[in-house]
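Handover notes (outgoing to incoming on-call)

Open items:
1. Putative ribonuclease H-like domain-containing protein: sequence verified, structure written out, both below. Nothing else pending on this one.
2. Nothing else urgent.
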Amino acid sequence: MGFRKVICYSDSMDVISLVHGSRPNYHHYMAIVLHIQDLIRMDWEISINHILREWNSCADYLAKKGATSTSTFTILDYVPYELKHTLFSYAIGTWFARS
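Putative ribonuclease H-like domain-containing protein structure tokens:
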């Protein structure tokens, strides 16, 4: 099997600390954090990096969408239409200046 590398970006230092840190006795998303920690230990190279939300329009869009949602947690199993162009641009290495 070929070499696999996954690069993740988060605009939340709290999330990065939870994922990389010790396991607290209680956190309302601890089941998800434990699952992420299990994924990190799999046979691949993974890095989790901090990025300012203003520098990542996809994260910015999702954060704004989450802020207006009545749900406390949402899993998307599709790419929202509004993000398809932006994700493609990031995939080919295009970055946009934010105003």
